[in-house]
């Protein structure tokens, strides 16, 4: 792939499976989530967050229903940070530690 950024507008979860290939190749992935419901939006974000965690990347929240994945080595300039929008996408406290519980 000879480009640095890919743009997508998914309508179903299966479409976002191909985004992982771009994330693995350290590409920026710009995603417009305006065509999906809140439940599917959460599922897509959880899936992408897992992939980005492994690749040490991050997600930035650009506007209503618009996100962009940033690769580990990615450099970008963002004049604003939409904290309220990030809260809308995040359903849990980021500092909260998730501790696995094992049965006896």
Give a brief rundown of this model.
With 104 residues, the protein is an alpha+beta fold. It has helices at residues 19-24, 38-55, 83-89; strands at 5-8, 28-32, 58-63, 66-70. The protein is built from 3 helices and 4 strands; from the N terminus they run E-H-E-H-E-E-H.
3D architecture notes:
With 104 residues, this protein is an alpha+beta fold. The protein is built from three helices and four strands; from the N terminus they run βαβαββα. The longest helix is centred in the middle third of the chain and has 18 residues, at 38-55.
Strand order of the largest sheet: 1-2-4-3
Helix content estimate: 25-40%
Distance between the ends: 49 Å
Number of strands: 4
Secondary structure category: alpha+beta
Q: Please state the CA-atom Rg, rounded to the nearest Å.
A: 14 Å
Protein topology:
Blueprint: E1 5-8, H1 19-24, E2 28-32, H2 38-55, E3 58-63, E4 66-70, H3 83-89
Parallel strand pairs: 1-2
Antiparallel strand pairs: 2-4, 3-4
Descriptive terms for the model:
single chain, 104 residues, alpha+beta, four-stranded mixed β-sheet, 3 helices
